[in-house]
Every structure is written in C-alpha cells, then in structure tokens.
Amino acid sequence: MELLILALVGLGASFVKSAFGLGAGVLFGPVLALFLEPRLAMGMTAPIMFLSSVTALGAHWRRWHWPLLRRLLPTALVGLGLGSYFLAWAPATTLRRAIGLTALAFAATQLVRLHRQGYEVPGTVGEPSHAGVPAGGAQQALAALLGFSGGIVSGIAHSGGLFFSMYLLPRLGKVAFVASLTLTLFVIDTFRLVSYWYLDVLEPRHVLLSLLCVPLMVLGGWLGKAFNGRLSARGFVSALSLLIAATGVALLVR
pLDDT per residue over 113-142, tens digit each? Predict the structure, then answer.
C-alpha cells in the first residue's frame, strides 16, 4: 500500500514540477495527512520530494543566481531545523492544524497572485520580465525573514517554496527564477532528509520504496514537459490551489 501511495506521489510530483515549475509537496503532504499520522505522511513523501528536485535540477543547471541564494539559504536552513523539530515532537492534532493552516495560506496567496493583473505562472513559456536585483540592508533582512519562514514550513509541511518564490520572483527573470527556486528546493530537500533521519521522522523503508518509484518519476517528468504549454497554466494552478485549500479546511476541522 505504501509503495502504491509513493508511486502516485512520485508520478504527480514530477508531472507538476516539470509542467508548471511548482513543488507538489504542498498538495501531497496535506492530502496524506488527512488519512495518515502527519509525521508518517511527511516522512514518506520527503524522499520523493528530494528525488523530484534532483530530476529537475539538470534542466536548470547553472542558471541560478548565487547572490540572492546566499542571502536566502542560511536562515532557510535554520528554519528548516526548527520546523523539523516541531514535526518530530508536536502532537498529531497540533500537526494537522499547522499543516492545514499552511495549506490554506499557500492556496490563498497563490490564488491572489494568479488573479493579479500581469502575473504569470512560474515555469510557463515567455521572455523574462524581471531583471533587477536590488541590494542593501533592507533586502538582506527581507531575504532572511522569508528564508526563515520558508524553512519552517518546509520542515512541517513541504511548503516553503511559497516564501522562497515571494523573494526570488520579483528580482529575477523567468529562467533565473525557476533555476534559483529549483536549486533552493534541492538544498532544502537534501537537508530535510538529514533532519528527518536524525529525528526519526524518516524511516529506511521509505527511502527504499522511493527509489523503486524513480521510473514513474521519470515518466511524470516526461509527461510534464510534453504537456508544458498545452494546458492552461492558470486554470491548472487555480484548480490545484482550490484543492489544497479544501484539504487545509478538512485538516482543520478533523
């Protein structure tokens, strides 16, 4: 049963990331937390999120923007440690509520951004529309705050991409943005495996089962690339956000 769940998560995560440049952990983590103990749900999906980041990294190799990442990643890793610790020790009811609130916040923010005039879904085709990279103490403080916040929710619910993209998107062109976000998620997913393992959230069998799902993840990535540009990105992401919101509400009232 666990292998079937991970196979579906792996296929879906790779498809969504390749087709629309979105991390799918914010969907699959909360959905699984509806039916499984939250720590088990997050631990099961952590290796899949890591492998999906590995498969996406090659497509964006060395297109990222290091100056911004150097501001974002240090506090993100600190936040990740705190979020992982919370996941490991908080009661199941508290975890479901925290994951539900995170899912609702993600969905609401995503829907507002989607319907804001001029906003385009990350990962869709088109020319870069942002090129400036402001510097200064205020920008470093903002990077530290959003990185820390993204790290915490990454540790709890695989949802830090929202905060990372809030910092990266206004400052980079599309190619550099997607590449920088992909590398950020790869670093976060790598250190999350370490923290989950250390805190006994991650079980060895989940790593082995995730490796068995690699062929399906390759298939999902291929399908995502094939459908990129053929599906309505706004319609798909809107539907995905509504599903995430509904899952968040279900976790809060459970």
Answer: 777 755 555 554 444 444 445 556 788 899
Structure tokens of 27?
A: 């969907």
Long-range contacts of 245-249 (CB under 8 A, 24+ apart): 245/103, 245/104, 245/107, 245/108, 245/111, 247/27, 247/30, 247/31, 247/34, 247/100, 247/103, 248/30, 248/99, 248/100, 248/101, 248/102, 248/103, 248/104, 248/107, 249/100, 249/104
Q: Which two tokens stand for residue 131?
A: 């090129």
What's the pTM value of the predicted model, to 2 decimals? 0.82
The two tokens of residue 24 are 């799918």
- Domain residue spans of the chain: 2-253
What's the rounded Cα separation, in Å, for the pair 89 and 118?
43
Mean pLDDT of the 220-234 span = 69
Question: Token digits for 113?
Answer: 């951004």
Residue 109: other Cβ atoms inside 10 A: 15
